[in-house]
Design goal:
By secondary structure, the protein is mainly beta. The protein is 7% helix and 40% strand. The structure holds 2-acetamido-2-deoxy-beta-D-glucopyranose (8 copies). One of its GO terms (biological process) is recognition of pollen.
Length: 360
């Protein structure tokens, strides 16, 4: 009897300890093997390796309530703890989080925004997946949501512009087992469009923002609803999305191959379901139909087409299209309206736009 009860008792004890562990204080650093668990047991933070015990290790956040290990944030993604070295994740007396290797060198650190000495701060892992450094009066002086890597979680905002000064970017992992910065990044451009870049070259472009847009909805039979919004807070534009309460995990990720994906955890099949993925398999990539060509997505398989009066130069559209006949102005030529086209790239935002929008 006792032999059977003992393991169960030990397990309960373990769960109880875990559930109280959602924060770090200067007196309580995190070592390899330790974990922070958010209050509602939704997210965990700790050290991890992606390959084997001799591979690099990182400090990151993953879902605690999802069996497939899925990382949503990595602190030291570009500065791993190498080889068999160990590490410590510490909240300093000046209220910054610091990752130290076994030699005491700093691999990664936050720079909080307080100027006055504050005592009693704690680093807390919240049920939203946000790691915050919180003062006793409730002010957060740093948060991981302001320093994303490749993932946007519900309620997180990606700042697309700061009065036309570009700010936050997502950066894709280099490979499934390598979270270091790859060639792909996502962010807003000076025209307030969302772009994925392959280094400095645009790879995918999303239609321009109008500041009031709700752009996507998703609903499974079981009910979770996602709505994605571009919000304008005093001239600063943010991309954000919310999910209905009680929804299982949902995340937007810039995949290591450069795709933007929205995924939802299916608690029946125990797998991530992709319900939005761009660029699509064919001509959805930036400028993939060349000059005077466009991607026709009205059919099951999207294909490149030329504008009326144009023909393709090459077979594969990489050279775009050319006029069938030389243009002779004034001989019955006129402008035509092309419906349902994406706003062209490199347009300029007129200062009249807010006035026009307010008239709608
Ligand atoms: C943790 O969750 C419990 C119940 O879910 C709640 O009563 C408590 O206030 C929470 N603690 C914190 C620090 O949020
Ligand atoms: C473990 O990782 C190291 C470095 O990445 C690699 O050289 C080694 O072959 C791996 N060992 C196994 C058993 O996978
Ligand atoms: C998002 O924020 C709303 C309002 O603050 C809150 O009710 C909701 O629980 C949050 N959702 C998540 C997933 O954190
Ligand atoms: C909390 O404390 C910090 C540091 O003492 C201070 O800068 C901040 O204004 C306080 N916030 C509130 C809401 O009282
Ligand atoms: C520090 O940043 C937080 C948001 O993370 C903000 O609420 C707070 O006002 C900032 N404090 C200062 C002193 O800038
Ligand atoms: C734009 O950002 C850069 C770098 O972060 C900063 O140095 C510059 O002052 C900012 N400009 C404006 C107008 O905010
Ligand atoms: C990304 O750009 C590199 C050159 O910088 C190119 O070799 C590669 O094919 C591009 N990737 C894709 C998917 O287009
Ligand atoms: C999935 O279902 C299990 C068992 O009902 C539950 O404990 C867990 O929190 C659920 N996960 C999510 C992500 O909703």
């Amino acid at each position: 009897m006792g032999m059977i009860l003992l393991p169960v008792f030990a397990l309960l004890l373990l769960i109880c300890f875990c559930n109280s562990k959602d924060r770090l204080t200067p007196a309580k650093p995190l070592s390899i093997g330790d974990r922070l668990i958010s209050n509602g047991s939704i997210f965990a933070l700790g050290f991890f390796s992606l390959k084997n015990s001799t591979a690099n290790s990182y400090v990151g956040i993953w879902y605690h309530n999802i069996p497939e290990r899925t990382y949503v944030w990595v602190a030291n993604h570009d500065s791993p703890i190498t080889g068999s070295s160990s590490g410590k994740f510490v909240l300093t007396s000046s209220s910054d989080l610091v990752l130290l290797d076994s030699k005491g060198s700093t691999l990664w650190t936050t720079t909080n925004n307080i100027t006055t000495e504050a005592t009693g701060a704690a680093a807390m892992l919240l049920d939203s997946g946000n790691l915050v450094i919180r003062l006793p009066n409730g002010t957060d002086i740093w948060q991981s949501f302001h320093h994303p890597v490749d993932t946007i979680l519900p309620n997180m905002s990606l700042q697309l512009s700061n009065n036309n000064n570009l700010s936050m970017h997502l950066v894709a992992w280099r490979a499934p087992d390598d979270p270091s910065t790859s060639d792909y990044s996502l962010g807003g451009d000076s025209s307030l469009q969302i772009l994925v870049w392959n280094r400095t070259r645009p790879y995918w472009r999303r239609a321009a923002l109008d500041g009031v847009l709700v752009s996507a909805m998703y609903q499974r039979e079981s009910g979770p609803i996602m709505s994605q919004t571009i919000v304008n807070r005093g001239g600063e534009f943010y991309l954000t999305y919310t999910v209905s309460n009680g929804s299982p995990g949902m995340r937007m990720v810039l995949h290591y191959m450069g795709m933007v994906k929205f995924l939802a955890w299916n608690n029946n099949s125990l797998a991530w379901e992709v319900f939005f993925e761009r660029p699509g398999p064919s001509c959805d990539r930036y400028a993939s139909c060349g000059l005077f060509g466009y991607c026709d997505t009205t059919h099951a398989v999207a294909t490149c087409k030329c504008l009326n009066g144009y023909e393709s130069i090459g077979l594969d559209f990489s050279l775009g299209c050319q006029r069938k006949k030389q243009l002779h102005c004034g001989q019955g030529y006129s402008f035509v309206t092309l419906l349902n086209m994406r706003t062209p790239d490199k347009f300029m935002v007129s200062s009249l736009l807010p006035v026009l929008l307010s008239l709608l």
